């Protein structure tokens, strides 16, 4: 089969479109023929070597949409099932293996292209909002990187849940109209969001802030987080660690919560099934959508990575087989 193989860490040129052996399925695993896979910013960090120096060569990618072609005799899945999945050893390939607990059926009327955009960002976003952040309708919330894949989902899901005020941040203010169409009330840049949040909340601050950027954005977020508010930290796309002091939280009764979908997939995969079922329903009923920025052929994975690194896109970037 064809796959994108990485034999060293570096820029997009290290991604090679190569012939590799089709993976062999183990017990309670599915072999899936891939239709589409998404490009996540985590893929960029892994390719560069920021997310740990894993064993090389490796295949990147977190999630796929495709068709089950081989299963156990007593599997809950059947050959021909349309599914989304979190593969075992990377997603940038024509065939992948996935643990049955990380495979989820999708309805016939949900196109593979839209399905491939959703696994990581929609499941993560739903858990961030409802389990970690525990949003309420009366909340004022801030969503950083609101034009990205996770940000696009967070805005829509928050609006669907009736959140009172949604503020989104973007690196380029030209993306403001896109984020507002998704449901944000106010969109501003990272340079201006602290003052804007205080202005929009009568100097009370935001109740919940969702931060995947870290670095300076974390400390700036604490400057506009309300008493009893929650900072939800789930990434560091800036490449820098965010910092805070204990005095930032105890006297103000604020809290900081961290979450990783990767950790949850590894250590508590059963937790994902009910969330996946819910977000698939929302996509099927078109209550939420995930705009597709661009689709590249698998052989053009390097071009897809360059686009994601440029941040000059809105929504999700996909690869197709």
CATH homologous superfamily descriptor of the largest domain: Medium-chain alcohol dehydrogenases, catalytic domain
What is the CATH domain class of the largest domain?
Alpha Beta
N to C succession of SSEs:
EEEHEEEEHHEHEHEHEHEEHHEHE
Largest sheet: 7 strands, mixed
EC number: 1.6.5.5
Enzyme class: oxidoreductase
Keywords: NADP, Oxidoreductase
Organism: Oceanobacillus polygoni
Summarize the helices and strands and which ones pair or pack:
Blueprint: E1 2-6, E2 15-19, E3 29-39, H1 41-48, E4 64-70, E5 82-85, E6 95-99, E7 103-105, H2 112-117, H3 119-132, E8 140-143, H4 149-160, E9 165-170, H5 176-182, E10 186-189, H6 193-200, E11 206-211, H7 216-222, E12 225-233, E13 255-258, H8 261-267, H9 273-284, E14 292-297, H10 301-310, E15 316-320
Parallel strand pairs: 8-9, 8-11, 9-10, 11-12, 12-13, 14-15
Antiparallel strand pairs: 1-2, 3-4, 3-6, 3-15, 4-5, 5-7
Give a description of the structure.
There is one protein chain. The chain has 321 residues and is of the alpha/beta class. The protein has two domains: 2-118 and 290-320, Medium-chain alcohol dehydrogenases, catalytic domain (Quinone Oxidoreductase, Chain A, domain 1); 121-262, 3-Layer(aba) Sandwich (Rossmann fold), CATH 3.40.50. Helices cover 28% and strands 26% of the residues. The chain is built from ten helices and 15 strands. The radius of gyration is 20 Å and the shape is globular. The mean pLDDT is 95.
């Amino acid at each position: 089969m064809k796959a994108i193989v990485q034999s060293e860490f570096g820029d997009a040129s290290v991604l090679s479109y190569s012939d590799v052996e089709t993976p062999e399925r183990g017990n309670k695993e599915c072999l899936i023929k891939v239709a589409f896979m998404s490009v996540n910013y985590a893929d960029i960090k892994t390719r560069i070597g920021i997310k740990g120096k894993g064993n090389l060569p490796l295949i990147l990618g977190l999630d796929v949409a495709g068709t089950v072609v081989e299963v156990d005799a007593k599997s809950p899945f059947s050959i021909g099932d349309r599914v989304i999945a979190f593969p075992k050893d990377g997603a940038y390939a024509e065939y992948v293996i996935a643990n049955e607990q990380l495979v989820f059926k999708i309805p016939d009327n949900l196109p593979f292209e839209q399905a491939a955009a959703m696994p990581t960002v929609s499941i993560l976003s739903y858990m961030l909002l409802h389990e970690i952040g525990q949003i309420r309708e009366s909340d004022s919330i801030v969503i950083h990187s609101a034009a990205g894949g996770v940000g696009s989902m967070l805005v829509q899901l928050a609006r669907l849940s009736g959140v009172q005020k949604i503020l989104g941040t973007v690196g380029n203010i030209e993306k403001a109209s896109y984020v507002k169409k998704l449901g944000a009330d106010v969109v501003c840049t990272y340079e201006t969001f602290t003052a804007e949040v205080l202005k929009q909340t009568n100097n009370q601050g935001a109740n919940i802030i969702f931060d995947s950027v870290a670095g300076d954005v974390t400390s700036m977020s604490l400057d506009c987080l309300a008493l009893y508010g929650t900072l939800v930290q789930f990434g560091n796309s800036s490449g820098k660690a965010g910092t805070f002091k204990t005095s930032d939280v105890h006297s103000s009764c604020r809290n900081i919560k961290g979450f990783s979908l990767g950790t949850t997939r590894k250590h508590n995969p059963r937790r994902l099934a009910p969330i996946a079922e819910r977000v698939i329903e929302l996509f099927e009923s078109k209550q939420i959508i995930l705009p597709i920025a661009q689709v590249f052929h698998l052989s053009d994975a390097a071009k897809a990575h360059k686009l994601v690194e440029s941040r000059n896109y809105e929504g999700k970037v996909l690869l197709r087989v």
